[in-house]
Protein backbone atom coordinates (compact mmCIF):
# COMPACT_ATOMS: atom_id res chain seq x y z
CA UNK A 1 0.00 0.00 0.00
CA UNK A 2 1.26 3.51 -0.73
CA UNK A 3 1.29 6.14 2.03
CA UNK A 4 -2.49 6.05 2.04
CA UNK A 5 -5.42 5.11 -0.15
CA UNK A 6 -8.09 7.71 -0.82
CA UNK A 7 -11.68 6.87 -1.80
CA UNK A 8 -14.38 9.17 -3.10
CA UNK A 9 -18.01 8.04 -3.04
CA UNK A 10 -20.64 9.46 -5.42
CA UNK A 11 -24.28 8.84 -4.55
CA UNK A 12 -27.58 10.50 -3.88
CA UNK A 13 -28.81 11.29 -0.40
CA UNK A 14 -30.64 8.27 0.96
CA UNK A 15 -28.56 5.62 -0.84
CA UNK A 16 -26.32 4.98 2.16
CA UNK A 17 -22.96 6.30 0.91
CA UNK A 18 -22.14 8.03 4.20
CA UNK A 19 -23.10 4.91 6.16
CA UNK A 20 -21.01 2.76 3.79
CA UNK A 21 -17.99 5.09 4.12
CA UNK A 22 -18.24 4.83 7.91
CA UNK A 23 -18.64 1.04 7.77
CA UNK A 24 -15.65 0.80 5.43
CA UNK A 25 -13.57 2.84 7.88
CA UNK A 26 -14.66 0.70 10.84
CA UNK A 27 -13.91 -2.52 8.93
CA UNK A 28 -10.48 -1.22 7.91
CA UNK A 29 -9.75 -0.09 11.47
CA UNK A 30 -10.62 -3.55 12.79
CA UNK A 31 -8.09 -4.86 10.27
CA UNK A 32 -5.37 -2.70 11.80
CA UNK A 33 -5.52 0.28 9.42
CA UNK A 34 -5.62 3.97 10.27
CA UNK A 35 -8.74 5.57 8.82
CA UNK A 36 -10.75 8.67 8.06
CA UNK A 37 -14.35 8.85 6.87
CA UNK A 38 -16.29 12.04 6.22
CA UNK A 39 -19.18 13.30 4.08
CA UNK A 40 -19.63 16.37 1.91
CA UNK A 41 -23.17 17.57 1.53
CA UNK A 42 -24.73 20.04 -0.86
CA UNK A 43 -28.41 20.75 -0.44
CA UNK A 44 -29.48 18.27 2.21
CA UNK A 45 -32.53 16.73 0.60
CA UNK A 46 -33.39 13.18 -0.37
CA UNK A 47 -32.05 12.40 -3.83
CA UNK A 48 -29.53 15.25 -3.99
CA UNK A 49 -26.01 14.31 -5.16
CA UNK A 50 -23.59 13.82 -2.28
CA UNK A 51 -20.00 12.76 -1.84
CA UNK A 52 -18.32 10.90 0.96
CA UNK A 53 -14.63 10.19 1.46
CA UNK A 54 -12.25 7.72 3.08
CA UNK A 55 -8.56 7.61 3.71
CA UNK A 56 -6.98 4.32 4.74
CA UNK A 57 -3.37 3.76 5.70
CA UNK A 58 -0.98 1.41 7.47
CA UNK A 59 0.42 4.49 9.25
CA UNK A 60 -1.15 7.40 11.12
CA UNK A 61 -2.81 9.87 8.74
CA UNK A 62 -1.76 13.49 9.18
CA UNK A 63 -3.69 15.08 6.31
CA UNK A 64 -7.12 16.55 7.13
CA UNK A 65 -8.72 17.89 3.99
CA UNK A 66 -11.10 16.88 1.25
CA UNK A 67 -9.98 14.00 -0.97
CA UNK A 68 -8.88 15.64 -4.22
CA UNK A 69 -7.03 12.81 -5.97
CA UNK A 70 -8.77 9.55 -5.12
CA UNK A 71 -7.20 6.19 -5.92
CA UNK A 72 -10.66 4.60 -5.75
CA UNK A 73 -13.92 6.12 -6.98
CA UNK A 74 -17.18 4.44 -5.98
CA UNK A 75 -20.36 5.41 -7.84
CA UNK A 76 -23.49 4.15 -6.11
CA UNK A 77 -25.94 5.95 -8.41
CA UNK A 78 -25.13 5.31 -12.09
CA UNK A 79 -27.14 8.37 -13.21
CA UNK A 80 -24.30 10.43 -11.76
CA UNK A 81 -22.02 9.17 -14.55
CA UNK A 82 -23.64 11.75 -16.82
CA UNK A 83 -24.59 14.38 -14.25
CA UNK A 84 -21.24 14.68 -12.46
CA UNK A 85 -17.60 14.41 -13.43
CA UNK A 86 -16.80 11.35 -11.31
CA UNK A 87 -13.30 11.11 -12.80
CA UNK A 88 -12.36 14.65 -11.72
CA UNK A 89 -9.00 14.63 -9.97
CA UNK A 90 -8.78 10.83 -9.81
CA UNK A 91 -5.32 9.36 -10.21
CA UNK A 92 -4.48 8.15 -13.71
CA UNK A 93 -4.60 4.52 -12.58
CA UNK A 94 -7.65 4.90 -10.31
CA UNK A 95 -10.01 2.03 -9.62
CA UNK A 96 -13.66 2.77 -10.42
CA UNK A 97 -16.39 0.66 -8.84
CA UNK A 98 -19.76 1.39 -10.42
CA UNK A 99 -23.20 0.17 -9.37
CA UNK A 100 -24.81 -0.52 -12.73
CA UNK A 101 -26.55 -3.16 -14.79
CA UNK A 102 -24.42 -2.12 -17.79
CA UNK A 103 -21.39 -4.07 -18.97
CA UNK A 104 -17.84 -3.32 -17.91
CA UNK A 105 -16.92 -2.36 -21.49
CA UNK A 106 -19.85 0.03 -21.93
CA UNK A 107 -19.18 1.67 -18.58
CA UNK A 108 -15.46 2.06 -19.26
CA UNK A 109 -16.24 3.81 -22.59
CA UNK A 110 -18.63 6.16 -20.83
CA UNK A 111 -16.01 7.06 -18.21
CA UNK A 112 -13.24 7.67 -20.77
CA UNK A 113 -10.49 6.47 -18.43
CA UNK A 114 -7.90 4.77 -20.62
CA UNK A 115 -5.61 3.73 -17.74
CA UNK A 116 -8.16 3.44 -14.93
CA UNK A 117 -9.54 0.06 -13.96
CA UNK A 118 -13.32 -0.07 -14.14
CA UNK A 119 -15.40 -2.61 -12.24
CA UNK A 120 -19.18 -3.00 -12.36
CA UNK A 121 -21.66 -4.74 -10.11
CA UNK A 122 -25.45 -4.54 -10.04
CA UNK A 123 -25.56 -3.72 -6.33
CA UNK A 124 -29.13 -2.44 -6.51
CA UNK A 125 -30.37 -5.76 -7.90
CA UNK A 126 -28.35 -7.67 -5.30
CA UNK A 127 -29.79 -5.51 -2.51
CA UNK A 128 -33.35 -6.07 -3.74
CA UNK A 129 -32.86 -9.83 -3.99
CA UNK A 130 -31.08 -10.28 -0.65
CA UNK A 131 -32.16 -7.46 1.64
CA UNK A 132 -35.50 -6.66 0.02
CA UNK A 133 -34.75 -2.95 -0.42
CA UNK A 134 -32.98 -1.06 -3.23
CA UNK A 135 -30.19 0.28 -1.01
CA UNK A 136 -26.91 -0.70 -2.70
CA UNK A 137 -24.42 0.53 -0.09
CA UNK A 138 -23.82 -2.80 1.65
CA UNK A 139 -23.25 -4.84 -1.53
CA UNK A 140 -20.81 -2.19 -2.78
CA UNK A 141 -18.63 -2.92 0.24
CA UNK A 142 -18.25 -6.50 -0.98
CA UNK A 143 -17.18 -5.25 -4.41
CA UNK A 144 -14.61 -2.92 -2.81
CA UNK A 145 -13.16 -5.83 -0.82
CA UNK A 146 -12.84 -7.91 -3.99
CA UNK A 147 -11.10 -5.35 -6.22
CA UNK A 148 -8.79 -3.73 -3.68
CA UNK A 149 -6.13 -5.26 -1.48
CA UNK A 150 -6.66 -3.19 1.65
CA UNK A 151 -9.89 -4.59 3.03
CA UNK A 152 -10.96 -8.11 3.92
CA UNK A 153 -14.54 -9.29 3.43
CA UNK A 154 -14.50 -10.88 6.90
CA UNK A 155 -13.85 -7.47 8.49
CA UNK A 156 -16.74 -5.93 6.54
CA UNK A 157 -19.10 -8.69 7.66
CA UNK A 158 -17.98 -8.27 11.29
CA UNK A 159 -18.62 -4.53 11.07
CA UNK A 160 -22.10 -5.05 9.62
CA UNK A 161 -22.88 -7.52 12.39
CA UNK A 162 -21.59 -5.11 15.01
CA UNK A 163 -23.42 -2.03 13.72
CA UNK A 164 -26.64 -3.70 12.49
CA UNK A 165 -26.98 -6.59 14.96
CA UNK A 166 -28.60 -4.82 17.91
CA UNK A 167 -30.51 -2.35 15.78
CA UNK A 168 -32.01 -4.68 13.16
CA UNK A 169 -31.52 -8.27 14.33
CA UNK A 170 -30.01 -11.46 13.01
CA UNK A 171 -32.20 -11.77 9.89
CA UNK A 172 -31.15 -8.35 8.55
CA UNK A 173 -27.49 -9.02 9.37
CA UNK A 174 -27.62 -12.33 7.47
CA UNK A 175 -29.29 -10.66 4.48
CA UNK A 176 -26.59 -8.00 4.40
CA UNK A 177 -23.87 -10.66 4.67
CA UNK A 178 -25.41 -12.42 1.68
CA UNK A 179 -25.48 -9.13 -0.26
CA UNK A 180 -21.80 -8.49 0.52
CA UNK A 181 -20.84 -12.02 -0.55
CA UNK A 182 -22.83 -11.82 -3.80
CA UNK A 183 -21.29 -8.49 -4.81
CA UNK A 184 -17.85 -9.89 -3.96
CA UNK A 185 -18.50 -12.78 -6.35
CA UNK A 186 -20.41 -10.87 -9.07
CA UNK A 187 -18.22 -7.77 -9.54
CA UNK A 188 -16.66 -7.76 -13.03
CA UNK A 189 -14.06 -5.69 -14.85
CA UNK A 190 -10.47 -4.73 -14.57
TrEMBL record:
Coiled coil (residue ranges): none
Pfam families found in the cross-reference section: POR
Keywords, sorted A to Z: Oxidoreductase, Pyruvate
Residue ranges constituting the Pyruvate/ketoisovalerate oxidoreductase catalytic domain according to the UniProt record: 13-185
Gene3D superfamilies named among the record's database cross-references: Pyruvate-ferredoxin oxidoreductase, PFOR, domain III
Highest taxon of source: Bacteria
Molecular function in Gene Ontology: oxidoreductase activity, acting on the aldehyde or oxo group of donors, iron-sulfur protein as acceptor
InterPro entries per the UniProt record, alphabetical: Oxidoreductase_gamma_subunit, PorC_KorC, Pyrv/ketoisovalerate_OxRed_cat, Pyrv_flavodox_OxRed_cen
Name of the featured protein: Pyruvate synthase
Organism: Candidatus Schekmanbacteria bacterium RIFCSPLOWO2_12_FULL_38_15
Amino acid sequence: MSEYIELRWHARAGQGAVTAAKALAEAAMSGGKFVQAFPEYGPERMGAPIRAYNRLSNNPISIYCQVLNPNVVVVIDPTLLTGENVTDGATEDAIYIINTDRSHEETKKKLKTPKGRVYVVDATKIALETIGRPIPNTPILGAIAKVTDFLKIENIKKEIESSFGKKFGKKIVEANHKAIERAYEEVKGG
